[in-house]
Design goal:
With 100 residues, this protein is of the alpha+beta class. It has a single domain (3-88), classed as Ubiquitin-like (UB roll), CATH 3.10.20. The chain is 16% helix and 25% strand. The chain has helices at 28-38, 42-46, and strands at 3-6, 20-23, 47-48, 54-55, 59-63, 66-67, 83-88. The strands form 2 sheets. Strands 2-1-7-5-6 form a 5-stranded mixed β-sheet, with helices on one face. It has a two-stranded antiparallel sheet with strand order 3-4. A hairpin with a 2-residue loop joins β5 (59-63) and β6 (66-67). The N and C termini lie far apart (59 Å).
């Protein structure tokens, strides 16, 4: 079973610069464990072991463009040919004065 995983720039040091890698698993948890066998350390950047192996708060994961937090989270079922996208959450900015 082949699943394409799109990797954000900040995590590409774990994939030798690859923008996308392939993995396998019947759930997102299995896929991330599989990826970690070839790209050591990537799983711990996505999954918080201290929080019961749930996705880190500031990491968004999409299965075929659907946020897995609205599916079954880390236990979301996967199928052959699925696409998983990992995106770091972006926040911040500055309040600016409005010109009247």
């Amino acid at each position: 079973m082949a699943i394409e995983v799109r990797i954000p720039t900040i995590l590409r040091t774990y994939t030798d610069g690859a923008k996308a890698v392939e993995g396998s698993g019947t759930t997102l948890a299995e896929l991330l464990a599989d990826l970690d066998t070839r790209h050591s350390g990537i799983r711990e950047r996505i999954v918080d072991a201290d929080k019961g192996n749930q996705l880190r708060r500031f990491v968004n994961v999409y299965l075929n463009d659907e946020d897995v937090r609205f599916l079954d989270g880390i236990e979301t079922k996967l199928s052959d040919g699925d696409n998983v996208t990992i995106l770091p959450a972006v926040a911040g900015g500055a309040l600016t004065k409005r010109l009247a």
